Amino acid sequence: MDGLIALRSMPNSSRRRVLIKISKRRAGMRNPFVLVLLLLTCCATPYQEMGLGGGVDAQKLSSNTYKITAYGNGLSTPALMHEYSMRKAAETTRQAGGTHFVIMRAQDASSMAYVSGAMLSFPGKEFEIRVLTISADQTVPQGAFSATAVLKSSSRKQSASQ
């Protein structure tokens, strides 16, 4: 299997195998940067903690406020990064003991890079959320998202894509 590399996607993604034939003359072992770039961008970023190929992260800003970030690779879409941000916000809300969250600020965190003569786009999303704890007898504030509903929706989408 000279020049053939089999990649297995992360467990949370669609679990398909991607085969990339790499010519030793063009990308080959003479240019390891191209090989690394191919390995990082061969599949859309799976839902995972932040790493070299992208992912999600939550940073505590105050007792009930968090910064949620999601960054993808060149094959990820802005819509996917939005979905990942919502899921991470819901997980963070539950971990903080909350039931709902409000997005106080949302911004595009996409970036572009010029690599080997090509312009690549890397989508990203940043949220600042406030975690709320709403009891059953209280009214949910306008614009608040139920962490449970977001997680259920996310798991349905994930099941449908597998």
Could you walk me through the main structural features you see in this protein, from its secondary elements to its overall organization?
The protein has a five-stranded antiparallel sheet. A two-stranded antiparallel sheet has the order 1-2. It is an alpha+beta fold and 162 residues long. The radius of gyration is 19 Å and the shape is elongated. The relative contact order is 0.15. The longest helix has 18 residues, at 78-95. The protein is 27% helix and 35% strand. It has two domains: 1-43, no CATH class; 44-161, no CATH class. Strand 1 (4-8) and strand 2 form a beta hairpin.
Key descriptive features of the protein:
single chain, 162 residues, alpha+beta, five-stranded antiparallel sheet, 3 helices, 27% helix, elongated
What is this entry, summarized?
The protein is α+β, with helices and mostly antiparallel strands and 162 residues long.
The outline comes out as elongated
In terms of per-residue confidence, which ranges show pLDDT below 50 for 5 or more consecutive residues? Answer: 1-29
How large a portion of the residues is in β-strands, by DSSP E?
Answer: 25-35%
Strand order of the largest sheet: 3-4-8-5-9
The largest pleated sheet is described as:
5 strands, antiparallel
Q: What is the total number of structural domains?
A: 2
With helices defined by DSSP (H or I, 4 residues minimum), what is the helix count?
3
Helix content: 25-40%
State the total count of DSSP E strands.
Answer: 9
The computed structural class is alpha+beta
**Structural Rg:** 19 Å
